[in-house]
Every structure is written in C-alpha cells, then in structure tokens.
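Anyone have tokens for DNA polymerase II? Sequence:
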Amino acid sequence: DKNISKEARASLEFAEDSRETEWVHPSFAAMLYQGQVKWDLMHPFPRQTNEDKRIGDEFIEKLEAYLEANYDADEVDRTGEIPDSVLKGLAELGCFAMKIPTQYNGLGLSQVNYNRALHLTGSYCGNLTALLSAHQSIGVPQPLLMFGTDEQKEKFLPRFREGAISAFALTEANAGSDPRAMTTAATPTEDGSHYVINGEKLWCTNGTKANVIVVMAVTPPKIVRGKERKQITAFLVEMDTPGVEVLHRCRFMGLKALYNGVIRFTDVKIPKENMILEEGDGLRLALKTLNTGRLSIPAGVTGSSKWCMKINRKWTNKRVQWGHPIGEHETIAGKQSFNRY
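Reply: yep, here.
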C-alpha cells in the first residue's frame, strides 16, 4: 500500500519479521486464504486414545467433585475474590500444573485434557477459567515448556505444582497490537550479568496474584539488513523482586474476580539467566505462546455457553404461558434445540 505511513510500515515490518517462517504442520485456515480446502485435516475428527481419555476422565471427576463442594461462583461474583482456601485446594489437585510434565512434578495432561478441564471450569465460573488459562496458557509454564533452558525448567516449573501462579506482561498504555511502540526497557549492566528493567505494564491478567511473570522489555537495538532494529526480549521476573510494584487492580463488569492489574518496574535487577531465548526473540516467543494459548478460549466459552443453556432450560420449563411451559412453545423449543449444538 503506497499510502501507508512510514511509522505504520516500520511497525508492520517489525511484527512480520517475528512471525514463523517455517511450518511443521499444515494450517487449515491458512490454506483457506490461499484458496485450498483440505478437508482431510478436519475430517474424520481426531479422537483421544482410550488411555488419554481415561487419564482425563479421572482428573475431571476429581475437579468436578471439588468445585461442586467448594466453589460458590455467586459468592465469588459478589465479593470479587476467589478464596485462598479454594486456590489452595485447586493447587493440591494440581490445577496449576496441568500441562507441566511429570518430570517437573506436574500432572502431564495432554492439550485435549487440559481443554476439557477449562471447559468444566467455564461451566462454573469465568473468573476461575481466566485465572487458570492466563497462568498456564500464556503465563510462565507455556513459554518455558516451548523455549526454556533445562535450568529454567528445573527452577520454575516444579513450583506450580505447589500452587505458584504466573502471568504474562506484554501490553502497555501505548503499546497493544503494535509492539514496536513498547517502552519498558531492560538495560544490561556493565558486566553483562544482569538486566535492569524500568517501565509499566497494563492489563496483566493474574498480575495482582502472581508469584512469577514473563515480562517483555526493549533491549539495546541491533542492525538488521542495514537498519537499526528494535529488540524485544522476554524475562522471567519474580514478583517479590525489589522495584516491582502493583499499582492498580483493574475491575471488569463480567469478570469481577479477575486478578488483572497495572504493574510498574523501577530499577528491577534481573539475572541474565532469567532471559528466555536470546535478545530480540521476545516477540517471536509471544506470538507462538499466544497461538497455543488461544486454544483455551473456545474450551472455556463453550463451557460457559452450556451453563447459559442450563439456565435457559430451567427458566423455560418454569415459566408458564397459555397453559404450557414456554419451552414447549414452538418458537422457543426450536431455538433451544438449535442452540444445543
């Protein structure tokens, strides 16, 4: 587009340079854009193995029994808080280590069983689903499993089986979909052993509750194809590190117990060993992590939709007009039957 501004073009090039260049598996959606329809990628739909389903069934049964006995979604919505006792119980079940391999004391659930768990929590409470998903789909576990060193995995992953919570800090007041506008900076120390982070992050889900988070920050620029190129790098940051401050908890109409916040970093000194991948790999890490993380969204909202349908059926069987429950009236019955699928 010849009308695109210089700034817009630079931001577009910056984002595109961080995208994947090689694809191990074919993409049904990408091929649609290219005018190709590969139905064999969608049908027949892949089924779980009997063993994987058995593992998932056992965990789902325990989780459902715990939620039924201990989780009051209405109370959570009224107070805007998930009780610490509930979080402790979920930790004992292994809910904060569902996808973490057993070698790191995790449950080692498959992506399918993890999604089944979020589908179940979605039918109870969106706040809980957001907490578990933000922690495990885009928080520390997923980036470490994909890109972390053996030392980083050994240090951080076992903590989540004990109930540690994580978050992902990318967005800023002036940097959302345009990561090139990011200003939070990580400056290397003179001896190169540490980085000092300064800046502020916005909309950090789990940020007010987290023990450790992934922070995206700008590191010194490099020359790429003859041009100076901004570098975004990912760091593991302990929330009790001096200089880390939660400024504000953001409140939302639909998710009143969401632990989302604004976090400020003032001269936060982080060891170089806490860098994930290399300098300048942060945006690539973020994009690949979010690709996997998005799989949890349809699982959770499908569970929420089933809960909505349950309320719908209950009311339409109770409300009587013209001598019959309104659920027996053709118009409403038709809508209900359609929405079941």
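The two ends are 42 Å apart (CA to CA).
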